[in-house]
Amino acid sequence: MAFRSLAVALSVIGSLQVANAALTKRVQCPDGIHTATNAACCPLFDVLEDVQQNLFDGGECGEEAHESLRLVFHDAISISNAAGNVGGADGSIVVFDTIETNYHANLGTDEIVQKQKPIIARHNISAGDFVQFAGAVAVSNCPGAPQIPFFLGRPPPVSQAPDGLVPEPFDSVDKILARFADAGPVGFTPVEVVWSLVSHTVAAADLVDPTIPGSPFDSTPGTFDSQFFVETQLKGTLFPGTSGNQGEAESPLAGEMRLQSDHDLARDSRTACEWQSFVNNPTKLRNRFSDVVLKLSLLGHDQSTLTDCSEIIPVPQTINVPATFPAGLTIADVEQACVGTAFPSLATDPGPVTSVPPVAGS
Q1: How confident is the model at residue 24 (pLDDT cuts 50, 70, 90)?
Q2: Which residues are catalytic (predicted)?
Q3: I want to staple 135 with a disulfide (CB 3.0 to 4.6 A). Which of 72, 121, 161, 293 is the partner?
Q4: Which of 134, 151, 148, 139 is nearest to 55 (CA)?
């Protein structure tokens, strides 16, 4: 009797799912190939193909993908509650690139802007929409990443963003948290600041130390994993070839860049426990990063006026790779700052100890 009831219940659920799918009407796109739940999203299929082939080299999680994700943040965070919330995720860093890419915090963004501008010109899409779309597609190319939501319909920017609104790696934790709290109508909490720095799991630095361009922030810059949150909590060394520039902290691995701001946030009482919580927690890593990128992408906009085109963003490859201590390092090398919660138990990679290579194309 119980099995019969279960079968009936499953049959009802299946019928409801089919019915719900039938109620979700899709439209045929003009290309005759794709369909979408909203016709306004159809042109994005052409943009997607262009971006993947001509910006991301066929869909790689490489230098251009990293820089496109960086551009999402640099464009969006340039908004201030104290200054009236003008700006935000509007593409001003592309439209007013001769001004904004020369801001100190934005140095190095000129290269990705120049690569994106011809693609924008080939399509009927605003710069604000394109920056966010390209960033979401960039993330999708990284194994282990979430599918980032994307909303379409941002108008062109009315002016350049003010200088001084993008946090820098030599800023104090107090200054960084205050800047985030002032970004947008409600700002960002210290916990959300940590969420935003999940981006550093697929990132590298070029100009913090110009002598070592393309230095990744963790040992797996092509994979969306929690290795960044392990390695930033390890004791560091100033390796030969590094200059110890302002904004650069000692790193546990040769070839790896550790930003001073990442080092400090990993050890600050307001952020340390959230930082540690991402170690070996891929579900939380994906979900919280998706949440904070959506919030960034809507800065300066009313979500109700935009069109949800998230379905156009590719679904990333799923991976299941546990975090580890780099070869030669153990729990004894952790500088744990989260009081009351034990550091996760991790295996150590087999030796020998090797250096982390720079990101290709840097």
Answers
A1: low
A2: 74
A3: 72
A4: 134
Q: Is 50 annotated as a binding residue?
A: no
One-letter amino acid of 137:
V
Residues composing the chain: 362
Closest CA to 87 of 76, 98, 102: 76
Give the total number of structural domains in the chain: 1
pLDDT tens readout for residues 103-144: 999 999 999 999 999 999 999 999 999 999 999 999 999 999
Tokens of 360: 């290709």
C-beta atoms surrounding 350 within 10 Å: 8
CATH number of domain containing 166: 1.10.520.10
- Rounded to two decimals, the pTM is 0.91
**Residue 91 labelled as part of a binding site:** no
- Residue 287 inside a domain? The answer is yes
According to the annotation, is 200 in a ligand binding site?
yes
User: Two tokens at 206?
Assistant: 């070029």
Q: Is 345 among the domain residues?
A: no
Residue 261 lies in a domain: yes
Cα distance between residue 179 and residue 189, in whole Å: 10
Taking only Cα atoms into account, the Rg of the chain, rounded to an integer number of angstroms, comes to 22
- When pLDDT is cut at 50, 70 and 90, the band that residue 362 belongs to is low
What is d(CA 118, CA 97) in angstroms, rounded to the nearest whole number?
13
State yes or no: 305 annotated in a binding site: no
For position 202, what pLDDT does the model report?
97
- At 70, list the tokens: 């960086």
- To the question of whether residue 90 is assigned a binding role by annotation, the answer is yes
pLDDT of residue 243: 59
User: Rounded CA gap, 176 and 189, in Å?
Assistant: 11
β-sheet bridge partners, residue 234: 334
Question: Omega into 352 within 30° of 0, i.e. cis?
Answer: yes
pLDDT of residue 210: 79
Residue 331 tokens, joined:
């729990």
Which residue in this structure is represented by tokens 């799918």?
Answer: 21
Nearest-angstrom CA–CA distance, 67 and 72:
9
Domain that holds residue 294: 35-333
Distance (Å, rounded) from C-alpha 203 to C-alpha 67? 8
Among 74, 104, 263, 301, the one annotated catalytic: 74
Annotation marks residue 34 as catalytic: no
pLDDT top residue among 22 and 91: 91
